[in-house]
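step: validate -> pass
step: tokenize input -> pass
step: predict -> running
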Amino acid sequence: MPRGTAGTGRVMAQIAMVMNLDKCIGCHTCSVTCKQTWTNRSGMEYVWFNNVETRPGLGYPRRFEDQDKWRGGWKLNRRGRLQLRQGGRLFKMASIFANPVQPVIKDYYEPWTYDYRNLTNAPLGEDYPVAEPRSLITGKPMKIEWSPNWDDDLGGAPELAPRDPNVEKMRAEVGERIRFSFEQTFMFYLPRICEHCLNPACAAACPSGAIYKRAEDGIVLVDQDRCRGWRQCVTGCPYKKIYFNHRTGKAEKCTFCYPRVEVGLPTVCSETCVGRLRYLGVVLYDADKVTAAASVKDDKDLYEAQLGLFLDPEDPEVRRAAERDGIAHDWIEAARRSPVHALISTYKVALPLHPEYRTMPMVWYIPPLSPVVEAVSDSGHDGEDAGNLFGAIDALRIPLEYLAELFTAGDTAPVKASLGKLAAMRSHMRDINLGRTPDGSAAEAVGMTGDQIQEMFHLLAVAKYEDRYVIPTAAQADARRLEESALPDGCSLDYEDGPGMGADGPFGADSGRTSLPLVTIESFHAARSRQNADEEEPMP
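step: predict -> pass
step: emit ->
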């Protein structure tokens, strides 16, 4: 039965994200602002809810994609049913007090600071004083050996990049051609956060049931009151985006900035992204088909299987089913305007990260075309010509297969199709910008029309704030009531050593526990309106 027609099962809504990797410049602004907002406190020094990795590279924690070692995600058992890769109940019982299958601090990195006082307090002598590195965990002098972006910009690529698990998978097919001379023509940045999966392995792995997926928006959270620090979730998450707070003894993870999302504001990483590469929006999906989609036999079919879960919000049958299942009208309308739905299901240029983990991730990526363009330009040919780009996509087999290992479980066809559409858009829009009338051949070659190409261009290249972030505020009244009723006791983030305990919270100064009244939701939207207005508005 076609997607979005009669017979739709239980309709649910998910706030999802798409990142356009062609726009990421590796500035790490998203990581720093997320760090300042959520993990800038004792016990979380090594934690980065958002990090930006250079690819090819080892990632953070090191080689997190090696599931033969870390045993994250799901696999199919002999009967074709989903089973946690880390093992069943017997394994949990045997390892609940000492789980050995998880990264240690050296796989992440030991955070450090410097003994700056020595620069000013050192006795006068012939040598210049130095600021010795000291561990933020033990306070003792240490040797710096690794960090979350140690291989940034392919630093140490000849030694480190060959150990990238995706490269190791490719080596059997491409053999000795992959000797990391190709890093000169193929490198890109990969920002990562929690995937807020439809089928989260972390939630299934948690013995205490502390990890849950919110029914209203699909965000996966950790209940700090129920968490007992078993750390099975760290093993269960194949993306290794759950961390253990060694001070509180609790697990913590990316919250998708839900206090912001609840009032219609984008996540901190999206708001501060220099390249404006992130898109937020609502996706409607059939919850009754998630298990079947995650259970398809061939890993290469998982992308299409997950794509089949998503429903067309323009279909009247889908809208009626969504209303039947309690989805608010504002959410349905947001799904119709969702940039995420457009990039994933309409244009089909966004792809999931490692679908073979079978968690059904909901942070998708548009693969980068830039390395292909640069390779063509470096060869002395026109890097904007559609024919050259289409030919280069076919010829540059190593980049294509590497991207396929990341986004489509090794199937190059969806990656090639996505890059083809991006190449057609680049060529079509160049003709327009140069005052030429496009002949339509580039768009036709990828199964699109000129109008569709231009619509996709406006979304990917010049989209305004309100087009990139379509976040419904149907629960605004409830959020206001909960916000005001929280005074003076604080909010759900106010657990011990949590981000709500200090004077600063997820919205900046005075948004944590404080004796001052919290800023109302209307103020947030008024501030956003002023930030995006063409003309300066007077303050109330």
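step: describe -> DSSP finds 25 helices and 16 strands in the chain.
step: cleanup -> pass
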